[in-house]
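To the team - 2-acetamido-2-deoxy-beta-D-glucopyranose complex, inputs and output below.
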Amino acid sequence: MMAVLFLVFVLVVVANAKSKLPKSDTNLLEFPLNLEYLEAEFFLYGSLGRGLDHIQPNLTGGGPPPIGARRANLTPLIRNIVAQFGYQEIGHIREIKSRIKGFKRPLLNLSAHSFATVMNQAFGRPLYPLFDPYINDINYLLSSYIIPYVGLTGYVGATPKLKNPLSRKLVAGLLAVESGQDAVFRSLLYERAMVRVIPYGITVAEFTDRISALRNKLGRGGIKDEGLVVTTNNIKNIGKMTGNILVGNRNSLAYGRTPKEILRIVYGSGKEQVPGGFYPRGANGTIARKYLKSKKD
Ligand SMILES: *[C@@H]1O[C@H](CO)[C@@H](O)[C@H](O)[C@H]1NC(C)=O
Ligand SMILES: *[C@@H]1O[C@H](CO)[C@@H](O)[C@H](O)[C@H]1NC(C)=O
Ligand SMILES: *[C@@H]1O[C@H](CO)[C@@H](O)[C@H](O)[C@H]1NC(C)=O
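Output:
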């Protein structure tokens, strides 16, 4: 009898798991779907030449296919790693959507031009020829440097605002894997830090420094981003080293960003009300749509 009652209790709890979350948790959990879709498509296309529409169509919710994503010219090791990350993102989308309703895949602009625009912004001048993320390992890795780290800071930022322990557990699980992806990209780039990117003659280290500085500027939330090599007057207490394979604050804790800061960065506009960049029609979900609406009012 007790066992049956317990079973009924468990079933009721499981059945209510989706609806029981406070609305604020639901909003915070759906927001990262925007980034997970972006990562899934960029990694799947980059490594396999196909995206969610071919690999897991029921996760798109019928959202439009990404613009300009394609198979990158990668060496086998990098292709293998990126494909693994692509499949991880499928898992992340599946898991988030199993907890909350979420939304369909937003329109994503993953064209070479979209990444070239970020690089031009980062350097404050146009690079010639236009930067192409899909052309080789280094360009693809530099383009990947742009993405999981933003998700990572978002998960750190969301954690203290979540009310339900199950929400926090989910975000901890997502954060751990995003951090791992970021660490792998940074390690691969660190090995190549002094390599000069052809044909620009600019080192990988400087690219990362410029991209991080751009994110700090667009996010307007202070210094939450650092390249692979820091200057000597910026050295933290990890030892007197300029190498900066992982980002962290003075005590090497990860930085957190708010949804607003993240939107300013991924839109490339520096304004959460002005879509663009990777999201021509804006990000979706209650939080992002609220900012977009506030523009029109
Ligand atoms: C999507 O399809 C896969 C099999 O292709 C299935 O395992 C999964 O449960 C489906 N997910 C949803 C959300 O329908
Ligand atoms: C946002 O998501 C909802 C639910 O999937 C959908 O009805 C709406 O069209 C989406 N908006 C955009 C701009 O993609
Ligand atoms: C994609 O981004 C590029 C570079 O910003 C832009 O020229 C192009 O118009 C964008 N495509 C769409 C459909 O928004």
